[in-house]
Amino acid sequence: MACMKLGSKSEVFHLDGQTWICSSGLPSDVIVEVCEWSFHLHKFPLLSRSGVLNNLIAEFSAEAEKNCILQLHDMPGGAKAFLLVAKFCYGVKIDLTASNVVSVKCAAEYLQMTEDCGEGNLIMQTENFLNEVFGNWTDSLTALEKCEEVLPQAEELHIVSRCINSLAMKACADPSLFNWPLSGQADEQSPGGTKLWNGIRIPAKQQTGTEDWWYEDVSFLRLPLYKRLIMAVAMNGIRPESIAGSLIHYANRHLPLLGKQSSFRNGNHVAPGSTISSPSETDQRSLLEEIVQLLPDQKNVTPTKFLLRLLRTSIILHASPKCRGNLEKRIGAQMDQASLDDLLIPSMVYSVETLYDIDCVQRILDNFMLLNQDTIDSNCIVDEGQLIRGAHSLTPMAMVANLIDGYLAEVAPDVNLKLPKFQSLAAVIPDYARPLDDGIYRAIDIYLKAHPWLTDSEREQICRLMNCQKLSLEASTHAAQNERLPLRVIVQVLFFEQLRLRTSIAGWFFVSDNIENSQNATGNLALARNDAHLQARNDQGQIVAMDDMTDRVSELEKECLNMKQEINKLVKTKGSWNIFRKRFHFRLKSKSDEPKPAKPCKSKDSPTTTARLTNGENDNNDNRGDENLKP
After folding, report:
1. Element holding 166 (H helix, E strand)
2. Percent of the chain beyond pLDDT 70?
3. Which end of the chain, N or C, is more open, meaning fewer C-beta atoms within 10 Å of its C-beta?
4. Which residues make Cβ contacts (< 8 Å) with residue 189, sequence separation at least 6?
C-alpha cells in the first residue's frame, strides 16, 4: 500500500479518557469538540493552517479571559480525521495511506487548509498523494471503500468518480495489448504483490492476463458503488461477458438464496453453526432486482443456468413482476441452452396445487416461440407434410422440443396437474420440431398412468399431441402393447408400422431390380471390352448385394408375420370383431366371407368377365380392408 510521510516532530498527543491533550509545555488555550471527543490545543498552530479555525478563533478574541471552545460536530471523518489534521498543524509525524487519505482530504477541504494559509498545506499534500493512489489498483479500491465513510463530501470533491474511473480503466485494460508485465518477467517488484509498469502499479492477479482477475476484488464493494463501477466499466468498452461474469460473482457472494443448499419454504438461510448474519430478504430482493437491471442485454452473454437460478430466487423473494418478467424474457431468448434440472422450478405459491411452477415454464416457452417466430418462418417451408429445414434455424427449436418433452415427463406424475395445462404446454411445440415423437409419447404414457380416472374421450384427446407415424420401432412396439392407450391409437400405431414395413419391402425389391439391370448392363460392357478382371469384381459385388437383400427381405417377412400375430392378439384381448368393426368401420376376410360363385354373365365390352358377389358387395370392397385401418 502506498504511503506518504508528513511532519518530522515526535509524538506530543496523548489520550486521557475521551480527551486528546497536546503536551507541548504550554497550557492549552483552545478546546475543539468533535462529537463526543475533546481536543485541548493551542491557537497559533491552528491559525497558521486553517482558514475556518482562524475565523472561529477570531470570534473569541474580544473575550481574552475566557477559554475558546469550538464545536465541529459535522467534521468529515469525525475525531479520527481531526486528530491527523491536528498533528499536521503541529508538524508531528503522520502517515497518509489509501485508508485515511480520503477522510483527511475531506477534513482539510472542510477546514479550508489551502496554500493561502501556509505553504505545503494539507489540501495540496492529500491531492498529490491521491494521484499516486489512483495509479494503483489495490489502493484505488481501498480509497473507494473508504469513501463510504464521508460519502457526501467525497462526492462533492469528485473523489468517488475519480476512484471509479481509475478502477474502470484498469479493469478494461488488456496487459497483452499494452505490454504490461506478465508473471515471470523481471520487472521492478513493489510491496504488496504488485509490479511497476510505466509508473503504474498493477496487482499480481492481473499479471496472468485473465479477464476475471478483478471480479473478487470489486465484489466487496457495497451495491451503490459497485453499480457505478459496473456502469463505468461498460462505458469503457469492456466485453459484455466480463460484465456478466462480475455480476455472477457478486450475486453469489451477496445472495445466499442462490446457493444450492438454500431452503425454499423458510427464512432461515444461514448454514448451521455459522456466525455470519445473512442479509434480510428485503435487502436481497433489492439487490437481485438491481443485478437483473445491470445484466447485459445481448443474447447468450449471461449463462442460462444462472438466469434460471436468479428466477427461482426472485420467486422465493417475491421480487417485482417486472423483474421476473425480465428474467423470463431473457431465459426464453436462449431457452435452447437450458437444462431440465434448472427448469424444474418449485411452486412457491401455496394457492397453486402443482408441485412445479408450470405457468412460469409456459411463459418462458411462449417467449422463446415469439422471439424465434421470424427465423422459423423465413427458414422453414411446410409442403404436404414434408418439411424443408434450414441448416441452423431448427437446431434450437429441436433442442427446446426435447427439453419440453423431458419436462412434461417429469411433471406428469403430479396427480394435481390438470389435462388442459399439460396439453397447453405440449401443444406449443410445432410438429416439425420433433424428429421423433418418442419423448412426448413417454410423457403421455406417464400422465395416463398417474391419472387412471381419465375418460376415453380425454385419453384420445391427449394422444392427439403425438404423431404415431413418428414413433421409433421400440416406441411403436411398446405402444402396440400399451393397455393405457385408446384402442384407436393402438390401431393407428399398428397400421403405420405395417405401412412402413410394406414401404421397406417395396424399396428393397426396387433395389433388387436395379441390381439385376446393372448386372446385365455391366456384363454386356465387360463382354464387349473383354475385361475379365472387371467382370469378376462386379460379380462378387452383386453376389454380396443379393445376399444382403435376401437377408433383409427375410427379416421384413418375419416382422410382417409378427405384426399380424399382434393384430390377432389385439382383437382377442380388446373385444369381439363386431365391436372392432362398428367402431372403426372395417373388417377382415374370413373363411365365411369367401365369395360364392355366381352365374357367369357376359357384357358387351368384356364378354369373358365373371362377377362374384358376396353379401351384395363387390369383391373390390373386401380389398379396402387395409385402407380402413388408416385413421
Report:
1. helix 159-172
2. 67
3. C
4. 195, 196
Q: In 10 A of CB 90, how many CB atoms? A: 19
Is pTM, for the whole model, over 0.90?
no
pLDDT of res. 198: 45
Residues 425 and 509 in one domain: no
Structural domain range at position 564 = 498-527+559-595+613-631
- Look at residue 164 and tell me if it is in a domain: no
480, HSE (Cβ side, Cα atoms, 13 Å): 24
Contact between residue 85 and residue 122 where contact means Cβ atoms under 8 Å apart: yes
Whether residue 126 is found in the same domain as residue 28: yes
> Distance between the two ends of the chain, CA-based, in angstroms?
82
Taking CA atoms, 88 is separated from 107, 405, 446, in Å, by 12, 74, 81
The one-letter code for the residue type at 356 is Y
624 and 513 share one domain: yes
Residue finishing a domain among 133, 152, 185: 133
* CATH code (residue 84): 3.30.710.10
165 CA to centre of own chain: 30
- Are 116 and 34 part of one and the same domain? yes
Q: Which residues contact 363 (CB under 8 A, 6 or more apart)?
A: 328, 332
Sheet of 68-71: strands edge to edge?
13-16, 19-22, 37-41, 30-34, 68-71
For 95, the enclosing helix (H) or strand (E) is: strand 94-97
Positions in the chain whose pLDDT score sits under 70: 61-66, 174-209, 260-277, 351, 374-394, 501-557, 559-560, 563-564, 566-631
State CA 76 to chain mean position distance. Answer: 44
Count the domains in the chain: 3
Q: Which of 422, 445, 466 is the last residue of a domain?
A: 466
Secondary structure (DSSP) of 396-432: HHHHHHHHHHHHHHHHTT-TT--HHHHHHHHHTS-GG
Say whether both 506 and 431 belong to one domain: no
Considering the domain architecture, whether residues 349 and 419 belong to the same structural domain is answered as: yes
C-alpha cell at 177: 495489448
Give me the helices (H) in 255-303, please. Answer: 281-294
